[in-house]
Amino acid sequence: MKEFNKYAILKYSLFNFSSYDSDDKIINHTNMVMSILEKHVVVCLDAIRDKKDRKFVLDSLKENREVINITMKEMENYGANIINIGRNSSNIPILFVSQSAYDNYTEKTKSELEKSYDLCLVNLQTIEKLKGESVKSMIVELS
Fold this sequence. Notes:
The protein is built from seven helices and six strands. The chain has helices at about 1-5, 50-60, 70-75, 100-105, 105-115, 125-130, 135-140; strands at about 35, 40-45, 65-70, 85, 95-100, 120.
């Protein structure tokens, strides 16, 4: 982390926490629970069961970004597995979101994201169903 922070504009810190889905199964990939975007962090705080860990994560995230807390249903439909890459011709940040994530967002979440980002919706239903991965996982693997 020290080496990374030598080059980073914002300084990052490493912390551990456990997260669980609604069936009490541990979630092994942070990108299913949280995405750090340009202006926001989308996170499912309910997935972090330990109250001390949840508070620490929330307090840490609030230091540099606005927090959008999504529901378990939103998270389990890939609502945190999103990625912010580039800007459109109007200089608005582009946010890649799967169609199933978008379809399961609450109106509040949709509104918060649409205020700050140009949403690029992609249908990944087959990959999500067969592989259990979504937008962020695919783009990160390609980059």
